[in-house]
Amino acid sequence: xSKRMKNGMxxxxxxxxxxxxLNHLGSVIDFFQTVSRLLLxxxxxxxxxxxxxxxxxGFEKLYTRLFHKLNVKEDTIRRIPLxxxxxxxxxxxxxxxxxxxxxxxxxxxxxxxxSVYLMIQxxxxxxxSFLSSYGFDTSWITTALSSFSLSQINIEHIVQSILSGAGxxxxxxxxxxxxxxxxxxxxxxxxxxxxYILLGKKNLGRQCHKLLYAHIxxxxxxxVYHIASLISSTYSKFLSSQTIEAIILGFMIFLAFSIFRIPxxxxxxxxxxxxxxxxxxxxxxxxxxxxxxxLMVNPLQALLSIxxxxxxxxxxxxxxxxxxxxxSVGLAPLWTLIAVLIGGNLFGIIGMIFFxxxxxxxxxxxxxxxxxxxxxxKAATATETEEK
Length: 388
Hints:
single chain; mainly alpha; 13 helices; 89% helix; extended
């Protein structure tokens, strides 16, 4: 069978398959939804493994240098399960960070909510008298507050309402419980898959390499391998530099707030470090939350906290973030800002986080293509000159 006939048969088969899919579009959509639900834990596990591989590789390099300093033989180092040791160290660090953030943030949040409630309760008469002095009608506020009493709540009526809607409530509760259990199961499977991928990443890498070069022509396989390596290295540098930037910004906020004696310095610094993983926008959210917390203690200090925070954030955004994050992925500060804006408009917070390394990969590929094309043009020009 000739190559032309094969291409014609493939084209006819594709047309028949496309026609069948268009006639049964609902069934095709249901099929892909079912497949996506089945593959969701696997995809999530691969993404989680890709993210966790950054600190795992960092610990691998750290332990390798440590063993070399201790004059451990190379054969002994190879027999040590560095991947397992590095993965265990990564999980321990994650647990410690979660515990540290929880012990620092949750108690202060509880105290802040309690102080806000007590402050509002004590300031309500002052606010009412202030509004009344300017001619506002506050009788409805007084009536609403006086009528709101736990003793006046009709418990019997509430019980009857609950019993009458018990069926709907039970079905809703069962639906929420089943969906929650499904999400937890998927998360557990994703975590297990991610751990297995990390533990066997060398074997998986060799298998993917063999499959790639066995079924694709060598020039195309080389190009695919180069792009995959570029994506992996770029995202690893981005996540590492983003972590460093979060630590720097959190420490700067803590130092500035401590110098000006602004309350909740530790809490706001921790929130800033966590939310700064959302480029440019997360810090504004932390500033707003911190200003609200400080406002409940001292309104003048709340204004001071906003000013101090914005100054620190301006310094960080202009002189630290573009060079630490953008420089680590080989992207100029201007393109870093453009990537954040485009990613945020297209995909929200996720786009803002992942569009910087994506733009860096596209920029590097375009740079390589441009340099190769200029080199070919230069070589062609030199050849024409020699022929003349």
